[in-house]
Design brief:
This protein has 13 helices and ten strands. It is an alpha/beta fold. Strands 1, 2, 3, 4, 5, 6, 7, 8, 9 and 10 form a ten-stranded mixed beta sheet that branches.
């Protein structure tokens, strides 16, 4: 269907699997990632009642596109879900923000008239397809010119998190307090049934597997640094080596899917809009600090939307590491009491390519549960990028 003018884009359905431990003993480890994504796609269609033949495209975020997650996993999952062969699919990679970018692409397609009905999804099985397994040992993914621009070389994200903690003056105690609060909020949300409407139980798992109740600062303080390295200590003497397994997001398995259309198409098909995709943006940032892009991304999306930080009722900021969210809150002035109110990735997990769609699913539901109007989602990404999206509850 062609349109002569820009229209809106609305979310009419959003589901996710519970998040499993991304290790061999995780509850979802036995599920092939194609089947994991197919489960979310199939559940999305069942819950919304949409005829899958009407879906114009399925855009899926996956970070490690190798082995079982290679060969355009989006298309494989569409077929595995039993959708008509006429439904196309593509896989995108903007690192941790991959499925948030999929949502942006889907919304832009609807608003431009290129799509009537589109699914944005994400999947990652970190237990079956380990991070960086898309780069064979000894391969150079950077090239000569990039190395010349950054002669000191890039660093893994853990060291970036350490640098942020040091430069923003965030103590080990503050990092651990934030991590504990993530678990406490996730425990409360699970107990209160706040995730019930968004979860699509799989392989006998009906809750997020890695939430840990009853933690203490004393127990967290006993953990050793996850990233200490003597060479890095010499390069960055300011680092305090305060990042541990407890204040980092864990390896995770999971998938999520979001159905997007226009208000006009939703009315025609009898679908119920849940939220309007108000504004989207993406930024590049320092590839060494890497994880601070959420700060300019938030500022940019607010300016683009004509809103202020005070206008936002709920924030979802991906908890890759505690200092990411704390530095973001410090620089933007956002209220941490309205941030990740049902817990974040430190407690729930961070299945890389799935996290953007998972967070959006949680944010949509949280806005309806609290009666808030605007929600803002942002995610840091490897290489120094960040997506930000504002949605408006309908």
């Amino acid at each position: 269907m062609r349109r002569s003018s820009i229209t809106d884009a609305v979310i009419v359905g959003a589901v996710r699997t519970p998040i499993g431990k991304g290790k061999a003993n995780g509850a979802l480890h036995g599920v092939h990632p194609v089947d994991m994504l197919a489960h979310s796609l199939r559940t999305l269609v069942e819950r919304t009642g949409i005829d899958p033949a009407l879906i114009d495209d399925v855009i899926t975020g996956t970070v490690t596109q190798a082995d079982e997650q290679g060969q355009n996993i989006a298309r494989n999952a569409v077929l595995a879900a039993g959708f008509p062969e006429s439904v196309p699919a593509t896989t995108v990679n903007r690192q941790c923000g991959s499925s948030q970018q999929a949502i942006s692409f889907a919304a832009q397609g609807v608003m431009s008239g290129a799509y009537d009905v589109v699914v944005a999804a994400g999947v990652e099985s970190m237990g079956r397809v380990p991070m960086m397994s898309d780069v064979r040992p000894g391969a150079d993914p950077f090239g000569v010119d990039l190395a010349a621009r950054y002669p000191d070389g890039f660093i893994p994200q853990g060291y970036s998190a350490e640098l942020i903690a040091a430069r923003w003056g965030l103590s080990r105690t503050r990092l651990d307090e934030f991590a504990l609060s993530s678990h406490e909020k996730a425990v409360a949300a699970t107990k209160d049934g706040r995730f019930a409407t968004e979860l699509a139980p799989l392989a006998g798992l009906d809750h997020d597997e890695m939430i840990r109740p009853g933690g203490s600062l004393e127990s967290l303080a006993a953990l050793r640094s996850a990233f200490y390295d003597e060479t890095m200590a010499q390069r960055f003497p300011e680092i305090g080596w305060d990042i541990t397994a407890a204040n980092s997001s864990p390896l995770s398995d999971g998938s999520a899917a979001v159905l997007i259309t226009s208000s006009e198409t939703a009315r025609r098909l009898g679908l119920t809009p849940l939220a309007r995709i108000h504004t989207t943006t993406v930024v590049g940032s320092d590839p060494i600090l890497m994880l601070t892009g959420v700060i300019p991304a938030t500022e940019k999306v607010l300016a683009k939307a004509g809103l202020t930080i005070a206008d936002i009722d709920l924030f979802e900021v991906n908890e890759a590491f505690s200092p990411v969210v704390l530095a973001w809150a410090h620089d933007t002035g956002a209220d941490l009491a309205r941030t990740n109110v049902n817990g974040g990735a430190i407690a729930l997990g961070h299945p890389l390519g799935a996290s953007g769609a998972r967070i959006m699913t949680t944010l949509v539901n949280a806005l309806h549960q609290t009666g808030g109007r605007y929600g803002l989602q942002t995610m840091c990404e490897a290489g120094g990028q960040a997506n930000a999206t504002i949605i408006e509850r309908i």
